[in-house]
Structure formats: structure tokens, C-alpha cells
């Protein structure tokens, strides 16, 4: 396993993660407003392409962050996207963030913060070997197929799709770290190595799959899907780090127990956020839908 020393570059990784989270949050707000549009309509909607651009910008910043910090540090910071997305969503619809939303955000952020503190590394950035890469892709394909199948069951929660998106993004981050480290050490010629090239291709495929599932998940609202993606993403990435890259849970058995409690708190936060839209009154829901439809129509027909 190839490793790269991590020195005092963590603050750079954190700053890049903050910028990435802001870009992702803005994209999520746009995507949630277009959640009920068909693919054909989306392709003709300018705000959809803006969201794609913002997602691309967030991904690029995330890639650079992985060069300056380990996966277990960079990935959990994505939870900031949740706070920013809910705040931006409320601001753009001229409403206040509700108490339930703040409580859900607080639990989710606290839980993921605990995971971030407890998930450490041996001071190195590890990358996947060829055998590990193949095994990871097979497991990821099976898991995404299962989650995607559950999300299409009639009456199923859109949060299954959000979980699939989070897993796709988390695995993509692990692969991105591997490719970034190889290119940093060997230059662009590293892509001539078969397993590095395979990882690069898989990154693009997983990013597209994650975007597809995320768009589908926003039919369940904004806060809950973003929270599920924010939870599934670092859990998937941390699992890869712990199992394959030599990272570890700080504190031994006690640390594992605390990580479990942190994960439980994050799940409670997601559950609370998933109730926010369900608690809307008919008048609130109608007003929200009318505003979203008007904005989507205006974006589709700017001259109208």
C-alpha cells in the first residue's frame, strides 16, 4: 500500500472542504426545486445545468482537499453541506429555519462530528491496491443495486435513493484519493497503469450514479435527503479507510462505542429532518409547490 506523509496541510483541506460544501449546498437547493421534473425537462432547464456546474465545482474542490488530508478527515466535513443547504433553502424561500430543522441538523452534525473526531489515521494517506480496488467495486456495485432496487418499490421512501447517492459519493472519494496520490507522485503518466485508469473511470461512473440517485431523492424534500447523503457518504468512506487503508477508530473499544453513539445521534437527526416536510400544512405545501413550479417554468422558458 502506497502512503503519502501528511504534515501541517490539514487546515488547507478543511478550507477546501468548506468551499466544496457551499457549492454542493447551492446545487442541492436547485436540484430539490426541480425534483419532480422529468429528465427531458431537466435537460432544457438552465437552473439544472447551473446545479450540475456547482456539483462539478464542489467535486473539484473535494478532489484537491483529498490531496491535503486523509479520507477520514475530509469526508465527514461534508456534513457542513447539510447546514448550508437548509439555510440556503430557507433563505431563498423567504422563511425561517424551523425549530425541528435546527434540532435535526444539530443531532446530525453532532453525530457526524463525533465520528470525525474518533476516526483517525496513522498519519499517512493510504491508497488502494489493484486487488482492493476490484473487490471494492464489486461490493459497491452490489450495494448500489440493492439500494436502488429498494428505492423503486412502490411507496418506498426517497431516502433509499439518498443512501445510494451517499454510498456512490463515498466510494468515489476513496477512488479519487487513490488516483490523486498516484498522479501527484508519478504525473499524468500514472493513468497508464491499468488499475489507476480503472479507478479514474469508476470515479466518473460513480459520480454520475450518485447524481442520479440524489436527484431522485429530492422528491422527499431537501433537508432529509441531504442529511442521509451526508451520513452515508462519510460512513462509506470511513469504512473503506478502516478496512482497506489502515485508518483506525481512536480510543479502542471506548472509541468504537462512542462512534456507535455518534452514528445513532446522526440517525435520529435524519429521522427528525425526514418529518419536516410531512409536518407541512396543506396550505404550506401548496404554496411551496406553486413557487417551485413557477420558478421551473420561468427557467425553462426564459423568454415567456
UniProtKB/TrEMBL annotation:
Xref: InterPro entries: EmrE-like
Keyword Membrane on entry: yes
Transmembrane intervals: 46-66, 73-91, 103-121, 133-153, 159-183, 195-214, 220-245, 252-273
Stretches assigned to coiled coil: none
Keywords from the UniProt entry: Membrane, Transmembrane, Transmembrane helix
NCBIfam families assigned to the protein according to its UniProt record, in alphabetical order: DMT_1
Matches recorded under PANTHER family: CONSERVED INTEGRAL MEMBRANE ALANINE VALINE AND LEUCINE RICH PROTEIN-RELATED (PTHR40761:SF1)
Record's protein name: Magnesium transporter NIPA
Species per Swiss-Prot/TrEMBL record: Couchioplanes caeruleus subsp. caeruleus
